[in-house]
Write a structure and sequence with these properties.
single chain, alpha/beta, 15 helices, globular, binds 2-acetamido-2-deoxy-beta-D-glucopyranose
Length: 483
Amino acid sequence: MAVQGSMLVALLWLLVAVPCWAQEPVDSGDREAFLPQSVLSDMEFATVSSYRGPGNNDSRGNKELPILLWWSAGLFPHFPGDTERIDCAHSSCLVTRNRKVQLYRRTSAIIFYGTDFRAYEAPLPRLPHQAWALFHEESPMNNYVLSHAPGIRLFNYTATFRRESDYPLTLQWLPSLEYLLAPPSVSLQEKNRWRQAGLAPVLYMQSHCDVPSDRDRYVRELMKYIEVDSYGKCLNNKPLPEHLEDTGTATGEDRQFMSFVARYKFHLALENGLCPDYMTEKLWRPLHQGCVPVYRGSPSVADWLPNDSSAVLVDDFPSPRELAEHLRALDSDDAEYARLLEYKDPRRVTNGRLLEALKSREWGVNDMSKPNYLNGFECFVCDQENRRLAAERAHRRDPGQHPRPQPRMANNSHMGCPLPAPGYGIVEDVPPDDGWLQMWPQDYWQSLDQAQGLNSLIQHNESDPGLLWHHIQELAVKRAGGH
Ligand SMILES: *[C@@H]1O[C@H](CO)[C@@H](O)[C@H](O)[C@H]1NC(C)=O
Ligand SMILES: *[C@@H]1O[C@H](CO)[C@@H](O)[C@H](O)[C@H]1NC(C)=O
Ligand SMILES: *[C@@H]1O[C@H](CO)[C@@H](O)[C@H](O)[C@H]1NC(C)=O
Ligand SMILES: *[C@@H]1O[C@H](CO)[C@@H](O)[C@H](O)[C@H]1NC(C)=O
Ligand SMILES: *[C@@H]1O[C@H](CO)[C@@H](O)[C@H](O)[C@H]1NC(C)=O
């Protein structure tokens, strides 16, 4: 997470802050408090720094703005302090990580970080006037609750890696087009010399071994048919040169490490979880370096590749043996290998979807001149909520003229990652004491129980999320009784 970056952005914002004292009467609907009194006292509001963003002419004072509560306080993208006024493209909000405002009438939305979202800690009772917003850019394995329809439908706004989400973060690991176009760090001639000197054609570098995609099971099979140098903790068969650290699980780009791995023609680029549009640096980094990713992760990855022949897709091959044959053929055919790197010529980057997404996204990756996506999503929610509140006010004033705004909620297309399957072979052939088998399919189905349990808590207007286990049990008993 680029939390430090967001703090810097917040500081920059503070420096250009201009106070805003304008007041505007609010509709009575906004003033009625769910609790007898605001738990954010007037004094706390007075100390909230106030500034105007570019282009926004929302003239309301802090006391009149809707509140967005960051339930995952650790991700609160402002510094210092717990509460901040944000001025977005169209409107303003107060954002806070102070959970005391949970039940307050003015708190119109709660923002969650998917990895931290736990059904047994959810803010209950769920108030009908509050929208839930989900930010989840990380792996599906971090929280399978969100991959089930009853889990994702709890949210009204999403920012996930999927293109269908409301605020998509699909290319979050790709800094820019220029990153892809960088000339190969090691020429093909040099790579061939390294091959002669004994390097394998294929690199594997993983230290996180027990993952839902079960990638090691595939690689273990692949290794029977082609040489793979494996330096990480998983399937290790070679020591790393002493001067290099194992950065197999890190995302940093240490120069020495990068030039070491760039000697390899092919990089096994296997995500830890399989889900549409879940693509990480495992894909983009070899493309940047001019190595060919041998990729498995998002089944629709071809939609985002610079050119349809710039990666080798594991799923295009019926078996590891046939993939190995293909890689060996490419290894001994320089012309064919070079074709895979043609995208380094900008004229060969012909994927309109990729170019358009890079051009139109408002957030930056390692780019201080653009907002980061935490601030971007927060503003997306702020503007949407102000629009919704205005539509509801208009409806209350004149129901004949203004219909009630339609509720919106996320669905499986915003996350919806499939049941983990073995990396190689079929689940029936996996021995019962297999570590992967004991962990991931169970985790997936237990997550469904939790999603259903939380729905039940909400339906029953419970205020204690600790009753989750009780509700899960009741649901199980009901299901058993139905048979
Ligand atoms: C600012 O106010 C003007 C006039 O009230 C309005 O036309 C314009 O759309 C507003 N701008 C934004 C960004 O809301
Ligand atoms: C990929 O590049 C090749 C060679 O330059 C070109 O012929 C082909 O049209 C490109 N394909 C796509 C889908 O961009
Ligand atoms: C938010 O989603 C819930 C379902 O999870 C729904 O009941 C509610 O009406 C939605 N709220 C808005 C403002 O769309
Ligand atoms: C799921 O949500 C998207 C918008 O986010 C919408 O376009 C789509 O129709 C929805 N699908 C279903 C089955 O409701
Ligand atoms: C839900 O519970 C809260 C208090 O916990 C109560 O104020 C509210 O009226 C309840 N809502 C419904 C629909 O029963």
